[in-house]
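Quick one, tokens below:
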């Protein structure tokens, strides 16, 4: 049997549900079906760190995600044997995705949005008149437009013939008990101490079935060369007196946003990790929610005008705060993981204001352009001094 709706969203993670919530908020008359392959509560391999910025978008819609969470007040950066800690009370939280994504989907359902789980999309045909989708449950849906919110190796990107992704990361994580070297439980740690690692290791306080634990992991940017996240996390654990063999390793990939890459085609919009997230750190939940916040009013306008070419979506994202953040982080990734890493690290330790600005952004605090320009100026001056050092 064939059903017709206005909009099909493929993927019921934060990008898909945020898009559904924001489209519904902009125009509740648009009929939406979210198709999610897995059945909630479904696991998503992820450390679950979310900046308060993401919750500001949800707050605006009155969406409250009531799940166990560890509240964060600080971010610590380990660089060149030093730890730089920036405090900003209430800057974010750590959740378990199995709980968070389920609660978010329930918030959409409570608003009357149809979220179908256990319903994977198998084929997508895009024509001049609309989109036809078939599911693993044997259904056929017709829609005016489709949103690909189906994550890192989603079907929409493939079947709508987008260019293959370039920026990829490999990530391994596991949950352990705490150790003496750990920072306080209101602090997440990004450890860049291994300079030969094209990425970082992390310690995030988490809560598993009511028990305080620490999610640790290794993020490796594969685009920069071969590496092995499993071996990296093994070494990281052993340095903390933990036996890697005692913990269940969870491995997954990530896709970075690429400047200039198209993230839309006629009748097709990509959001969240299907479009690309921050390659520098692999942060993607807040970005997924923000993609939805941008896509909501954008799609509502497209339905109002009955115009689904979406030719300006890539540019709309680029000009939004989301695109600005993704562009800055993309530039940082090239700079930080490049041949001048040692100098960049020394400068970062001397000019913590740039790190403070990044923490403010994560926390959703307003970004002062003056502070940004001043911080960038300080950074560039310190970098120029470092470059003049004879040992670099
Ligand atoms: C180990 C690891 C740790 C991470 N830690 C963090 C972190 O601490 N903080 C952070 O911000 N980000 C983190 N990330 C990144 C973050 O998990 C992702 O960027 C984020 O989940 C992207 O959200 P999304 O909604 O775009 O995609 P997803 O969350 O991947 O959701 C996509 C959904 O689409 C569904 N789907 C796929 N194919 C189909 C289909 N054919 N039909 C129907 N449904 C389909 C999937 O089942 C899935 O539910 C981490 C990633 C990894 C791998």
């Amino acid at each position: 049997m064939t059903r017709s709706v206005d909009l099909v969203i493929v993927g019921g993670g934060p990008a898909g549900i945020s898009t559904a919530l924001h489209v519904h908020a902009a125009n509740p008359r648009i009929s939406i079906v979210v198709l999610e392959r897995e059945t909630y509560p479904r696991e998503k391999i992820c450390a679950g760190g979310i900046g308060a910025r993401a919750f500001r978008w949800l707050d605006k819609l009155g969406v409250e995600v009531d799940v166990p969470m560890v509240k964060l007040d600080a971010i610590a950066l380990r660089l060149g044997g030093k730890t730089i800690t920036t405090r900003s009370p209430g800057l974010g939280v750590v959740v378990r995705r199995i709980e968070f994504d389920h609660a978010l989907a329930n918030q959409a359902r409570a608003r009357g949005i149809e979220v179908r789980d256990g319903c994977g999309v198998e084929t997508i045909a895009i024509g001049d008149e609309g989109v036809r989708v078939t599911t693993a449950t044997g259904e056929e849906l017709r829609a005016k437009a489709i949103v690909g919110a189906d994550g890192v190796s989603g079907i929409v990107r493939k079947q709508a013939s987008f260019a293959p992704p370039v920026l990829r990361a490999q990530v391994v994580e596991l949950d352990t008990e705490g150790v003496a070297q750990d920072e306080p439980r209101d602090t997440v740690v990004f450890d860049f101490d291994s300079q030969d690692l094209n990425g970082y290791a992390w310690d995030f306080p988490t809560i598993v079935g009511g028990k305080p634990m620490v999610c640790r992991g290794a993020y490796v940017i594969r685009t920069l060369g071969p590496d092995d996240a499993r071996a990296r996390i093994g070494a990281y654990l052993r340095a903390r007196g933990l036996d890697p063999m005692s913990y269940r390793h969870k491995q997954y990939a990530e896709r970075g946003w690429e400047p200039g890459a198209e993230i839309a085609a006629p009748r097709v919009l990509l959001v969240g990790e299907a479009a690309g997230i921050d390659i520098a750190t692999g942060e993607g939940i807040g970005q997924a929610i923000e993609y939805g916040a941008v896509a909501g009013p954008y799609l509502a306008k497209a339905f109002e005008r009955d115009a689904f070419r979406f030719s300006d979506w890539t540019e709309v994202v680029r000009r939004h705060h989301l695109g600005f953040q993704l562009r800055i982080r993309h530039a940082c990734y090239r700079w930080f993981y490049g041949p001048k890493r040692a100098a960049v690290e020394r400068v970062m330790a001397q000019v913590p204001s740039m790190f403070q600005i990044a923490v403010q952004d994560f926390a959703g605090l307003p970004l002062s352009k003056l502070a940004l320009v001043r911080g960038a100026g300080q950074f560039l001056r310190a970098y120029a001094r470092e470059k003049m050092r004879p040992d670099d």
